[in-house]
Design a protein that fits this description.
The complex is a heterodimer of chains A (115) and B (112).
Chain A lengths: L4 E3 L2 E4 L5 E6 L6 E7 L6 E7 L2 E5 L6 E5 L5 E5 L8 E8 L10 E2 L3 E5 L1
Parallel strand pairs in A: 2-11
Antiparallel strand pairs in A: 1-3, 3-8, 4-5, 4-9, 5-6, 7-8, 9-10, 9-11
Chain B lengths: L3 E2 L4 E5 L4 E7 L6 E7 L6 E7 L4 E4 L2 E6 L4 E6 L8 E8 L7 E2 L3 E6 L1
The chains are: A mainly beta (115), B mainly beta (112).
């Protein structure tokens, strides 16, 4: 158990809809990262928050947004969903702000299916 | 464009033998590399890392080798055990960068 929790575990929705994925980092970790893993793809970095502020942005679509709240949990909002958004979405956390150095601890993921 | 590539989607090895998982990268600015292991229904967990100032790093049964000139790294598991059966991801970053780039993973099956 990494200490990172993600809810829900599974989500099935229709095209055009909007969903929210939730992540609670390990106790003491200030950074939260979001990744997308599509079929036969590696983990694609989406976005990082550090202590409530956006720290780094990767390949995140404009239809997607995220935020980190004062209690450090984070939410990833996906809107106008398309079939291609079906994927595993992982949240990870780390103590420090440097996404290229700090070891990241991953949650179990949320599997999103868009029908 | 995939900057970190794992060209073998799967690998099967007999228990007790060596498992060698390979990873290639294209960005010469990468100077920090990690391997993560992932079991089904779980998130990836950190396994071992290496920085570009080294060419080898060992941790028990796991050794990572880095060949900077070839932009290639490999993970050796000796001896392989059935519990090592998992998907292995390599990841790379530039230390001054702000993200890891992950490969597509290699599914290792260790046959008892």
């Amino acid at each position: 158990d990494s200490g990172v929790t993600q809810t829900p575990k599974h989500l099935i929705t229709a095209t055009g809809q909007r969903v929210t994925l939730r992540c609670s980092p390990r106790s003491g970790d200030l950074s939260v990262y979001w990744y997308q893993q599509s079929l036969d793809q590696g983990l694609q970095f989406l976005i990082q928050y550090y202590n409530g502020e956006e720290r780094a942005k990767g390949n995140i679509l404009e239809r997607f947004s995220a935020q980190q709240f004062p209690d450090l949990h984070s939410e990833l909002n996906l809107s106008s969903l398309e079939l291609g958004d079906s994927a595993l979405y992982f949240c990870a956390s780390s103590v420090g702000p440097s996404g290229g150095i700090n070891e990241q601890f991953f949650g179990p993921g949320t599997r999103l299916t868009v029908l | 464009d995939q900057q970190v590539k794992q060209n073998s989607p799967s690998l099967s090895v007999q228990e007790g033998r060596i498992s060698i998982l390979n990873c290639d990268y294209t960005n010469s600015m990468f100077d920090y590399f990690l391997w993560y292991k992932k079991y089904p229904a779980e998130g990836p967990t950190f396994l071992i890392s290496i920085s570009s100032i080294k060419d080898k790093n060992e941790d028990g049964r796991f050794t990572v080798f880095l060949n900077k000139s070839a932009k290639h790294l490999s993970l050796h598991i000796v001896p392989s055990q059935p519990g090592d059966s998992a998907v292995y991801f390599c990841a790379a970053s530039a230390v001054r960068g702000n993200q890891f780039y992950f490969g597509t993973g290699t599914s290792l099956t260790v046959i008892p």
